[in-house]
Amino acid sequence: MTARGWMVLMLVVAAIGWWYSPLSPRIPAVAAAAPGFNLRCPLPPRTDSDQPPLQSPLPPALSSFRLAAADLRPLAGLSVEARVLSRRDYTFGREADLSPTDLALGWGRMRDDAVLAHLSISQSGRWYHYRWTGTAPLPLPEIAQSSANMHMIPSDPSTAAALHHIRTGERVRIDGWLVEATAPDGWRWRSSLTRNDVGAGACEVVYVCAVTHL
Q1: Ramachandran angles phi, psi of 117, nearest 5°
Q2: Closest among 151, 154, 164 to 24, alpha carbons compared
Q3: Rg of the chain's alpha carbons, rounded to an integer?
């Protein structure tokens, strides 16, 4: 390939990468409702300012959110005010059909600049990773209990747009429902129901009703 050809190829690859990045104007599509089902995402009880995430019981009348790709069975309400530690967008894979974005969120002392300056934070493969050099800036149980990687399922186009425009370092409130996604072929994706767990299964799967920039 000629030098001109390589340059054209690099430009094409860069353009594709930009189009699928958070900087792109492209808003990821919202998973469609199942035929004949009218989606509605009522707000759960909201957490107070500067408080830990609020997990609330289900109201008796709340039923599953039926999507064409999967049924979302609500498990609990979730309202969280947090700092965005990192974000990662996903385009391919079954989970991406529902949740195009993961947010790593921190609350309590995991929002503080003095703490975050000593942590290296990243996301990959639907996981959230943190590392440090020397002594950890907080006790490890506190880091685990004051941060989480959350898989965000937007409930409508406006929520999808709000999630798409969230940037690392911002403070946001996310209100929605922790869910278990299931499909007829047996596929299953279940949210954690505690902020104290780590490792496989510790991430929250959130059907997002509202996003508020703080």
Answers
A1: -65, -20
A2: 164
A3: 18
Structure tokens at 159: 């929520």
| 110-121 pLDDT tens trace | 999 999 999 999
Quick one: 147 exposed, middle or buried, by C-beta within 10 A (0-12, 13-18, 19+)?
Answer: buried
**20 is written with which tokens?**
């699928």
> pTM for the whole thing?
0.87
What would the pLDDT profile of 148-175 be if each residue is shown by its tens digit?
Answer: 999 999 999 999 999 999 999 999 999 9
Tokens of 132: 């440090």
Domain boundary assignment for the chain? 32-213
Among 9-13, 14-18, 86-90, name the one with the lowest average pLDDT: 14-18
CA distance from start to end of the chain:
51
Sign of dihedral through CA atoms 146, 50, 211, 54? positive
Buried b (16+ CB within 10 A) or exposed e, 156-191: eeebbebbbebeeeeebbbbbbbbbbbeeeeeebeb
Question: Do 86 and 178 form a contact (C-beta atoms < 8 A)?
Answer: no
Calpha distance 19→4 (Å, rounded)? 23
The dihedral sign for the CA sequence 107, 110, 116, 122: negative
Residue 180 pLDDT > 70: yes
Cα separation, 89 vs 66, in Å, equals 23
Tokens coding 193: 């129901």
